[in-house]
Amino acid sequence: xxRFHAPSRRELLLASGTLFAWAYLPKLAQxxxxxxxxxxxxxRGALDGLATVAPVGDPGWVALRGDxxxxxxxxxxxxxxxxxxALNPAMPNLHRxxxxxxxxxxxxxxxxxxxxxHFDGQDVLESGLPKPALGESGWLNRALANLAPGGRVDPxxxxxxxxxxxxxxxxxxxxxVLSWSPERILPASEDTVIRLLNLYRHSDEKLASVLEGHVKxxxxxxxxxxGQKPGGPDAAAGPAQVRAYFAExxxxxxxxxxxxxxxxxxxxxxxxxxxxxxxxxANGRLAQLLGALDAALAAVETxxxxxxxxxxxxxxxxxxxxxxxxxxxxxxxxxxxxxxxAGGALKGGRVVADWPGLKSGDLFENRDLKATIDLRAVxxxxxxxxxxxxxxxxxxxxFPGSAGVRPMTGLVx
Amino acid sequence: xxxxxxxxxxxxxxxxxEFVFVxxxxxxxxxxxxxxxxADTGVAQGRTVLADLARHPATAxxxxxxxxxxxxxxxxxxxxxxxxxxxxxDSQGDLKELAKxxxxxxxxxxxxxxxxRRPSEWIVAMLNIARVMAGQALLGEALRRPPAPNGYPxxxxxxxxxxxxRLDAAxxxxxxxAADTDPLALLDSxxxxxxxxxxxxxxxxxxxxxxxxxxxxxxxxxxxx
Lengths: 413, 225
Known about the structure:
The complex is a heterodimer.
Chain A: H1 9-16, H2 18-21, E1 37-44, H3 49-52, E2 53-54, H4 61-65, E3 79-80, E4 86-87, H5 92-99, E5 103-110, H6 118-127, H7 139-146, E6 160-163, E7 177-180, H8 190-203, H9 205-224, H10 239-258, E8 265-271, H11 285-304, E9 311-317, E10 337-342, E11 350-352, E12 373-374, H12 375-386, H13 391-398
Parallel strand pairs in A: 1-8, 1-9, 5-11, 5-12, 6-7, 6-8
Antiparallel strand pairs in A: 2-4, 3-4, 5-10, 9-10
Chain B: E1 5-7, E2 19-21, E3 31-33, E4 36-38, H1 43-55, H2 57-71, H3 78-90, H4 95-104, H5 119-130, H6 156-159, H7 163-177, H8 183-190, H9 197-204, H10 209-218, H11 220-223
Antiparallel strand pairs in B: 1-2, 3-4
């Protein structure tokens, strides 16, 4: 009978052996004296681009979202990015980076996927393929594997880095992967508990009442504590825990990427963005998550240290959400959304968008913000200019079938 | 009348561990069990009592109920219990015949899944769908090592309060195994037509494979059998 136990981070590092072996590997080729880092953060659940970066300058904006529309003269005003767009007030760090030209927002963009399944959408997002196909590898791993030796990142001397209990597809593949997982994973999210409760209420009264009792108990526990308990086995993940977890995984990724002998590309995934109900404006579930994400970005910036000036962090999600609010104060699966880029290597301080408009006729299927930019163009542009990936390799191997999608220029300085 | 029933010490090389009747330890005299008198015939006294108990109608009922409760439902259909009772009496307690009756009875296959899987059963079911090997004491039930000879409680009341804790285990499991799963395919192969439309819908709309897998192993059809 095999014994099953979760490896501690120390064991993972020692077992991988690679962390300490790097001193003996060939020095990373540093063409042009640059040493770029790339971190992909996958936001699972479909991030609401319109609530993250609100098109406050669009005359149709308030009509669309009513009380849920962030407006500059509203109770909790968003942070101005330019004359048309403003950032959700939960993200002051990203705003600061934007003002220092170290962040770019790409809006109304999406992958070529137009259905509404999270699994398939995430597949397309991470595999880099034009259609879902339970993929074996992701575009970031293939990009690393395809880099010409002697270029900016030596594929033979560097591994891809993955943080989290599961290696995200985006960074899986033939290029070797080093992975790290925090010792404590988050307990099930409150959203998961609520979905389960809904299921039980439909089909199993006994289970529903047991779970309800548990939820009430956990809420009481939390209300009675001033500080957040480190989450005993009964508690679903609360906002402070989520915030701490986001900062821990992102911050650790940065620590590894910052090292002289460390990996140069990495990825991690953050869940919770599927805000079907109680999305909230400045105080709801989304704002809490964005706040946690903002803290995570700050942790990356801090831990990168001087390497921040060589860094690009790309925050991407599988698709957007409906333009209008639904009956439960949330939004449903949509199309166009934002891609957030942060890092000192960027030519930042801009919102890149080919704005499709918000009138009914402008919406995709009269439902969603239309996508006018193919996300692959953004990613190809970053890989090409920041990591010096070959354009042909990008079109054929990294994003197969994307020959018609031109890499976006001018993102990286 | 069981006094004197013991076994030979394990250290004895030839017969260690075997049953032995030690007359010296046997309480002499007649015994009365359930109103019937049993003369002191040494080891035969005890054997006779056991045989009579086995033939007692209450025994047939008890075993029948226990079997039905374990395999089918906390409150088993009386018709099923009756069938098993009859088989027990007719076959003089032949367990093979009882098993046959249980499997052949229509009541055993009623589509409603009502038995709450005990933690060990649930974990095994989880692991089966992921085809992973593990063994661990979890959620209050050490695999293969019950705390007392009467084993683990068999009704839902004993285990259902722990269901909320299973969510934690489900989450932990899902985090580690979600990567290569197709949750809907797993739903089909794990539960097939037994999955309700609600369950199917809940899993299809999950925000990530991890959440889908956790919800799958926590679905009522997966928690019950």
